[in-house]
Structure formats: structure tokens, C-alpha cells
Design goal:
Serine Threonine Protein Phosphatase 5, Tetratricopeptide repeat, mainly alpha, about 70% helix
Length: about 190
Amino acid sequence: MRLVEVGNSGNSTAQFKLGQIFEFGMGVPEDPAAAVTWYRRAAEQGDREAQYSLGHMFDVGQGVDRDIAQAIIWYQKAAEQGLAAAQFTLGLTYSDGDGVPKDAGWAARWYQKAADQGDGNSQANLGMMYWLGDGVPRDVIIAYMWENLAAAQGVSKGKLARETFELSMTSAQVEAGQKLSREWKPNKK
């Protein structure tokens, strides 16, 4: 397999792809332990996708014993490099207190980073935090904006929240939230 040669030569992209091949059994039998080995090699070179995937393997105990502390370390590395999926996952981690102290402020910070890049689930979660004033100052217009953006991407919880929010908002507040939504631009990392 030529890809193995390239991976063994130190190419982190090839190593990440090999991790995926073994994790998902693409043309080979599934081998979670081999996936972890390849993901780790790429992750240690700074490949953010591999860092996230390695974190996930530790998070669910696939190919390794479940170790939430290790999962968080790898998620954090990927999130700090701007990977929205890792930022969203850290938002969930802090929101739920899974392996870290529950901290709405940190959850909101990570959701914000992913939401700013256009991650619909992060937008929906952040919108709810603004609606409730959980970890951020309560702001119904900002809450509406985030839910509206999430709904536009087909995130059902965003659509439901937006529709629910409208029931207790003034028409001026709804219009202000819609205007912010129209003006919003993603900040791709």
C-alpha cells in the first residue's frame, strides 16, 4: 500500500488518511488500534483533524481505553488551531461537565469560536445560552440571531428555538435579530 509508505515517511496527511481507513474499514478490516496509531502519529505533528479524531477515539474508548482527560487534551489542541468540530465538542464538554468542571462561560467561549465559523449546532447552543443568560449576558436579539442562523442551515433545534423565541419577542426585536442575521459573515479559520 503506497499510502503506508508515505505515512511511514512522516507525511501527516497520509497518516491521518490511514487512521480514517483503519477506523472506518475502508478497503481493509476495521482496526481501531491501528487507527489510533496513525492518528497519533499525525496528531503529534500538529494535524488538527488527526488531533480531533484521536480525541474522539479516547472519548469513546475505540482502539484505546476510554480516557476523557486524554480526549480533552487532543480536542483542545485541535480547537486551538481553529477546528470548529473540536470547538463545538469542547463547548459540549464544558456545558455537560464531562471530564472538566461544568462551566457555562467556557462552554459559551468554545461555542462562540465555532459559531463564528458557521457551525450550526454551535450557533443553536450559543443562541440558547444568550436567551437564558447562561455563561453570557442575556440578550434576546443576539439569541434570536444565532438561532436564525442555525435554522437557515437546517438545524432543527435552531428552528424550534427561533419559533419559540418569537412568541415572546416584540416585532422590533425580531426584526433586529433578522437584520443581524443578514449582516453576519462567517469568520473561517
